[in-house]
Design brief:
It comes from Amycolatopsis panacis. The protein has 2 domains: 63 residues, Multidrug-efflux Transporter Regulator, Chain: A, Domain 2; 49 residues. It is mainly alpha-helical and 144 residues long. A hairpin with a 5-residue loop joins β1 and β2. Helices cover 53% and strands 3% of the residues. The protein is built from 4 helices and 2 strands, in the order ααββαα. α1 crosses α3.
Length: 144
């Protein structure tokens, strides 16, 4: 019945919304009303069923715990927590983009090296490249 991630159905991962609000509240250590409030404020955005019911993912639960930690242990207000979450999401997106661009650059370098190797392989082995230039040398012997 359960897939690769313990406690989740087959095919579910940490982003799959599977937990009803009562289970999410229990897992996060918060009251269900607090979860509703955080949803309204945009701190945590759970998935929704076709009937409008909230469904929380493992990632949502971790985020709820982090909101609670920042609020209670670090003394950050909810507006500050929301900004922190936004900035962390932006950093994650930028890291992902840097990773994509790094892979693209590596692929471009590999393609360029392959193309250069193909050009070098096409050289005739019996010919030696010679620069085409004309030079004039004037020799004047020393008088004795």
């Amino acid at each position: 019945m359960f897939g690769g991630t313990p406690g989740l159905p087959n095919g579910a991962d940490e982003d799959t919304p599977v937990f009803v609000i009562s289970v999410a509240a229990q897992l996060s250590g918060l009251h269900a009303q607090t979860l509703r409030s955080y949803d309204r404020q945009g701190l945590v955005s759970p998935g929704r069923t076709s009937g409008g019911g909230r469904r929380y993912s493992v990632r949502d639960i971790a985020l709820l715990r982090e909101v609670q930690r920042l609020s209670q242990e670090a003394g950050v207000n909810l507006a500050g927590i929301k900004r922190i979450i936004e900035l962390e999401n932006q950093v994650d997106a930028l890291r992902s983009r840097v990773h994509e661009l790094t892979e693209e650059l590596a692929a471009a370098y590999a393609a360029a090296e392959h193309a250069a190797a193909a050009v070098h392989a096409s050289y005739r082995k019996d010919l030696v490249p010679l620069r085409q230039q004309t030079s004039l040398v004037v020799w004047k012997p020393k008088k004795r």
